[in-house]
């Protein structure tokens, strides 16, 4: 029904305008898996926003409203390069969830905005199989390591031995590389962007200056915690704002008490999901 689609698009533009006005900058919404196939559309979206950014209060800032189950970390790396080529300040807003590669993407921002219902996820990278299906890498790595430990202890069953024999070493290495890249990018972006304005300690030794080594140590710990498959037990584990701020000591901007912003973001994200489903699209970018 074209008329209904037109109404949805008008509503999307309306709510996008309200949210962009709140943050005083260009606004881009991304919904769906993160995959190399979306890069061309993402570049087009960023370049279109750049053409009109002088009409905003903060031309060098962009706000990205993101909802994603995750995806390919190499695609995230390129998206960050494209975004940072034009914008010095990047805000991420997570109305629902940004999992796995989406979490890594958020860590490239200067600020992350969430409410009490929002979630990030463990940084368990997804890698494409031959049929294009994305699978989490850490589960494979952990299972192979478990079988190797059982073999060393002399308690590997015949069935497990056959499972281990069937593993493709090149594929396993690819999984390990995806894991290592995820951790290294997370550490790099936290120090370079998220911790950029962290100059004074707020909890430990309040008021003392924060050194570069301390920023790197904090980033290392956060990367270690988020990539610990044994801690989270599930690729799809949703990590809420209290765990992120309390357990991982990651600064999150909490908009729970801003009822107007919460309502606008909720309606906007629901409309994007509905429109993507109606279009039968795997992902959606909204920026006009």
From TrEMBL:
Ranges in coiled-coil conformation: none
Q: Name one Pfam family in it.
A: SDH_protease
The name of this protein is Serine dehydrogenase proteinase
Q: Entry's SUPFAM superfamilies?
A: ClpP/crotonase
Transmembrane annotation, as ranges: none
Gene3D superfamilies in the record, alphabetically?
Answer: 2-enoyl-CoA Hydratase, Chain A, domain 1
The family database entries (InterPro entries) matched by this protein are listed as:
ClpP/crotonase-like_dom_sf, Pept_S49_ser-pept_pro
Query: What are its GO cellular component terms?
Result: membrane
């Amino acid at each position: 029904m074209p008329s209904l689609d037109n109404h949805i698009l008008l509503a999307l533009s309306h709510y996008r305008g309200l949210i962009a006005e709140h943050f005083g900058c260009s606004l881009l919404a991304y919904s769906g898996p993160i995959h190399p196939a979306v890069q061309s559309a993402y570049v087009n979206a960023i370049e279109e926003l750049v053409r009109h950014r002088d009409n905003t209060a903060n031309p060098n800032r962009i706000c990205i409203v993101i909802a994603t189950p995750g995806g390919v970390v190499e695609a995230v790396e390129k998206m960050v390069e494209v975004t940072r080529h034009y914008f010095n300040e990047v805000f991420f807003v997570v109305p629902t969830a940004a999992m796995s590669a989406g979490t890594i993407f958020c860590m490239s921002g200067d600020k992350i905005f969430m409410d009490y219902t929002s979630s990030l996820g463990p940084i368990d990278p997804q890698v494409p199989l031959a049929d294009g299906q994305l699978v989490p890498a850490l589960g494979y790595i952990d299972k192979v390591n478990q079988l190797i430990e059982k073999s060393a202890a002399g308690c590997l069953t015949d069935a497990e031995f056959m499972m281990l024999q069937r593993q493709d070493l090149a594929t396993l290495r690819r999984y390990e590389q995806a894991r290592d890249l995820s951790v290294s990018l997370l550490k790099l972006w936290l120090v370079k962007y998220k911790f950029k304005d962290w100059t004074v300690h707020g909890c430990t030794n309040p008021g003392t200056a924060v050194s570069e080594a301390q920023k790197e140590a904090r980033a290392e710990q956060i990367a270690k915690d988020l990539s610990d498959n044994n801690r989270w037990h599930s690729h799809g584990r949703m990590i809420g704002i209290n765990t992120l701020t309390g357990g991982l000591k990651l600064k999150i901007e909490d908009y729970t008490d801003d009822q107007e912003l919460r309502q606008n973001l909720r309606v906007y994200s629901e409309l994007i999901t509905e429109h993507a489903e109606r279009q039968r699209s795997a992902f959606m970018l909204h920026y006009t």
